[in-house]
Automatic annotation (TrEMBL):
Free-text comment on the cofactor: Binds 2 manganese ions.
Protein name in the entry: Phosphopentomutase
EC number: 5.4.2.7
GO biological process, one term: nucleotide metabolic process
Cofactor field: Mn(2+)
Gene3D superfamilies tied to this protein: Alkaline Phosphatase, subunit A, Phosphopentomutase
Pfam families (UniProt xref): Metalloenzyme
One CC-aspect GO term: cytosol
CDD domains, per database record: PPM
Catalytic activity as recorded in UniProt: 2-deoxy-alpha-D-ribose 1-phosphate = 2-deoxy-D-ribose 5-phosphate; alpha-D-ribose 1-phosphate = D-ribose 5-phosphate
C-alpha cells in the first residue's frame, strides 16, 4: 500500500550503541540508551517504545525496557556514513545527502581572521574562543558578558561556532544578525563550518543563568538536493517541526514550526496529525541532546525519554490506517560517557502503521541513514539519487 502521511520523529542524540567506526571518533563503548537504562536500574519505563521494539533492536535488552514478543511494528538500527557526528550530518544523510568530507573543527579556537571580522562587524569584543561546555561557559563568563557587552564565542568537538549573549544585553535581533554575518565567514573554501548557533540566555547571575528556547541554528546551505527537495518538487507537503527548518536552511520545507521544548514539539506533532495533508512531517526533538546529553545528565535524559514515551501513546492512538510513523535519532550523546560532545553510535529505527499486516519485522542494521529517506521517496513514488535502500517492501508485505 501507499501511505498518505509519513511522520518521522528524530529523538536528537538517542544513540543505540557503538558504531562500527566508533573507535575512529574516540567513542568506542558509547551506548546512550544502554547506559541510561543502566543508570535507572530497571526503572526506565518506556512501554510504548518497548511495544514497537526498542529493546529488540538493541544489542542487549535495555534495562527496564522489555523485549516485545512480538513487537507491534518493525525495528532495526542505522549506521552513519557521513564524515561527522553532528545533527546536520545526520539529518542531511537521512535525506539522501551524506556529508562526505569532514567539516572544519577548531580545537584551539577560531583563527584571528574570523574573530577580527566578527568584532569589526558587531562592534563588540569576542571573549573565550575555545571549546567549552555551553552551560559552563555562561557560568564562567556570563557576568563578564553582562558587564561588558562582549560576545561569548565558543565551539565543541563538532563543526560549530556558537555565540552566547544575555538577552537583556544583546537583543535577539542583534544576536541573530551577528550570527548571520558569522555564517558568511565560514562557507568555504578556507573554512567550512556546519552550524552557527545563537545561544541566548537570561538570569541575574552565574548561579541562575539559563539558556532560553530562542536558540537558533544557522546551518550550512545544503550542498545538493535532498529528499525534502524531491518531495516538495513532486507537489507533496513537507512539514518541518523543531530545528528541521534551520538544519536544511529552509530548503524543501513547505511549512515549519519552531519548538520551545520537546513537549512543545509534540504539541505541534499532535496539531499536524489533526490536519489532512499528503506528504511528510519531519520532527526533531532536541532536549535530549541540548538539555541532558551535553550536560552529562543521565537522570534528566531518562526522564525526557519517559516523557516522550507518554506523548507517543497519543501519537499511536491518533495514527490513521494510511499513516506511517518512523522513529530514529541523528547521532548519540551518551550522558554517561567521557567529555561533553556527541558520540558516534548506531541509531534506533522503529516503524509502525495501524495497517501493517504483520508486526515483529526485523529491519536489521541498515548501511546508511539514507535508507530512511529512500523509504519515504519509494512510498510516494518519487525518484531519488540512488543513495540509500528502501525498506518499504518489508513494511507492506
Amino acid at each position: 500500500m501507499t501511505y498518505k502521511r509519513v511522520f518521522a520523529i528524530v529523538l536528537d542524540s538517542v544513540g543505540a550503541g557503538p558504531a562500527p567506526d566508533g573507535a575512529a571518533f574516540g567513542d568506542q563503548g558509547a551506548d546512550t540508551l544502554g547506559h541510561v537504562g543502566h543508570h535507572f536500574a530497571g526503572k526506565l519505563a518506556l512501554p510504548n517504545l518497548a511495544s514497537l521494539g526498542l529493546s529488540n533492536l538493541h544489542a542487549t535488552p535495555i534495562e527496564g525496557v522489555p523485549v516485545a514478543h512480538p513487537a507491534k511494528g518493525a525495528y532495526g538500527r542505522m549506521v552513519e556514513i557521513s564524515a561527522g557526528k553532528d545533527s546536520m550530518d545526520g539529518h542531511w544523510e537521512m535525506m539522501g545527502l551524506p556529508v562526505e568530507r569532514p567539516l572544519a573543527t577548531f580545537p584551539k579556537g577560531f583563527p584571528a581572521s574570523i574573530i577580527q571580522q566578527l568584532e569589526a562587524f558587531s562592534g563588540r569584543k569576542v571573549i573565550v574562543n575555545r571549546p567549552y561546555s555551553g552551560t559552563e561557559v555562561i557560568k564562567d563568563y556570563g557576568e563578564q558578558q553582562i558587564a561588558t557587552g562582549d560576545l561569548i564565542v565558543y565551539t565543541s568537538g563538532d563543526s560549530v561556532l556558537q555565540i552566547a549573549a544575555h538577552e537583556e544585553v544583546i537583543p535577539l535581533a542583534e544576536l541573530y544578525r551577528i550570527c548571520e554575518f558569522a555564517r558568511t565567514l565560514v562557507n568555504g573554501p578556507e573554512y567550512t563550518v556546519g552550524r552557527i548557533i545563537a545561544r541566548p540566555y537570561v538570569g541575574p547571575d552565574k548561579d541562575h543563568f539559563t539558556r532560553t528556547a530562542n536558540r537558533r541554528d544557522f546551518s550550512l546551505e545544503p550542498t545538493g538536493a535532498t529528499d525534502l527537495d524531491r518531495l516538495k518538487a513532486a507537489g507533496l507537503a513537507v512539514i518541518g517541526i523543531g530545528k528541521i527548518n534551520d538544519i536544511f536552511s529552509g530548503h524543501g520545507i513547505t511549512k515549519g514550526y519552531h519548538n520551545e521544548s520537546n513537549m512543545d514539539g509534540m504539541d505541534h506533532v499532535d496539531e499536524v496529525m489533526q490536519t489532512d495533508f499528503t506528504g511528510f512531517c519531519f520532527t526533531n526533538l532536541v532536549d535530549f541532546d541540548a538539555m541532558y546529553g551535553h550536560r552529562r545528565n543521565p537522570a534528566g535524559f531518562g526522564q525526557a525519554l519517559m516523557d516522550f514515551d507518554r506523548r507517543l501513546g497519543t501519537v499511536l492512538a491518533n495514527l490513521r490506517p494510511d499513516d506511517l510513523l518512523l522513529i530514529t535519532a541523528d547521532h548519540g550523546n551518551d550522558p554517561c560517557y567521557q567529555g561533553t560532545d556527541h558520540t558516534r553510535e548506531v541509531v534506533p529505527l522503529l516503524a509502525y502503521s495501524p495497517s501493517m499486516k504483520h508486526g515483529d519485522i526485523d529491519l536489521g542494521q541498515r548501511a546508511t541513514y539514507a535508507d530512511l529517506g529512500a523509504t519515504i521517496l519509494a512510498n510516494f513514488g518519487v525518484a531519488g539519487n540512488g543513495v540509500g535502500t528502501s525498506f518499504l517492501a518489508q513494511l507492506t508485505n
